[in-house]
Design brief:
Jelly Rolls; 0% helix; 5-stranded antiparallel beta sheet; 56% strand; 4-stranded antiparallel beta sheet; single chain; mainly beta; elongated
Length: 116
């Protein structure tokens, strides 16, 4: 089930510390026992240090973006996954980008899916 799909382009500037991407509330066990899959393209000019972060039940999990940058000055695919379990109706799932290095880059074609 796709809950957030593409056509979202962002120019992340050095003064952008946090870029909120998704905040969704668990309803009727839609997301329980599933895998959150975040996909996007990033266009860095330098090896930008940033994290893709998800928070579920006040527990956070993150992945380093720079580990997925293969080439500078071109679009690179990035993927982040997280298992979601033991959440109740009303619990909130948040996904955001944390620009820890305060660098500049572009991010595009963001999709977030949940797979059972």
């Amino acid at each position: 089930m796709t809950v957030f799909s593409g056509i979202k382009s962002y120019s992340v500037l050095p003064n952008t510390e946090f870029l909120p991407i998704l905040e969704i509330t668990q309803d009727q066990s839609k997301f329980n026992n599933s895998v959150l899959v975040f996909k996007a393209k990033i266009f860095p000019e330098i090896y930008s240090k940033a994290l893709i972060v998800s928070i579920v039940n006040n527990n956070w999990h993150a992945s380093k973006v720079e580990k997925q940058i293969e080439k500078l000055n071109q679009w690179n695919e990035i993927i982040y996954t997280r298992n979601i379990s033991n959440i109740k109706d009303g619990d909130v799932i948040k996904v955001y980008l944390w620009n820890t290095d305060k660098s500049e880059f572009k991010i595009d074609n963001i999709t977030i899916d949940f797979y059972k």
